[in-house]
């Protein structure tokens, strides 16, 4: 009798061990090279979420596997995603800082039976390329249209547009133009710069010569934005009263100390500020700052990754850990929660995040620290760019 009981107990233990599976999440991002800070923030957001919520969902353990993609490289991005799916057997793909890299992965999702959670890449069209894509970051249409209204309301009537020449830059240019011209403003010139541009002096001269009262700019956060803002100040545009309007990519918090007083007064619209005043954000900043090791390096990709993990956890719960991409995505359509950035939800039709967009001004807080101070809220913004892709 005792042997039968022991055998039954062993069977239960073995059955439990067999049932307890590891759910792997493959994250692709820039963990080395010039954009390594953004990859570091992906990991900080993920680590912060897992530190707060644990690595166990029911009987399943979550493991994150990272792959480094230092710069935009669609062919390598696809190869890394295929390696993660085939060799590592990940059930979920996530991350992706640059749009071309995310676009390259969408054709493999159906066959791989794998959802893709976009934690940064910001071209509207990505979600239209596969029904298995969900976005927890933002789009350039979403962040660029509000700043067009801000510029017009400030009395600016002539603007020159300057953007990086790739998907998000084109989206930003088109979004600002649509918003500004609708109100009666004029785009006097539209400049598209190669993504690798690092000498902005000729661009600044063209801005001066254009007769514009303001300049709208988009470049991907990192070394290019730091160089652009410095060049704007050093070439006398700020002193000449040509106001700079931009998406928040230009003034990420980790760059503000290096920009110093040159950045004061710059107006941007964005989905997240480290200084956002809410209990959820204070807890997030503490956890993500601890994960980074240096809280001063905390910037926006961390919140896209944090919320991306929230969505993936909900997918795992809904599927009971089984690999079923369609069921996983269906489960998060209409999902809403309180993010560190404010109230958010996943639009059931587009699978894109609905969120507040904030007008921010670079300022100093009471301690003399440079911050993006939120001064206005555009509530529950969807993605107007989706209509433009149809």
UniProtKB/TrEMBL annotation:
Pfam families in the cross-refs: Peripla_BP_6
Biological process according to GO: amino acid transport
Boundaries of every Leucine-binding protein domain copy: 22-365
Keyword Transport: yes
Keywords (A to Z) from UniProt: Amino-acid transport, Signal, Transport
Source taxon at top rank: Bacteria
Keyword Signal applies: yes
Family: Belongs to the leucine-binding protein family.
Cited PANTHER family: LEUCINE-SPECIFIC-BINDING PROTEIN, PERIPLASMIC BINDING PROTEIN OF ABC TRANSPORTER FOR NATURAL AMINO ACIDS
Protein name per UniProt: Amino acid/amide ABC transporter substrate-binding protein (HAAT family)
Species: Rhizobium azibense
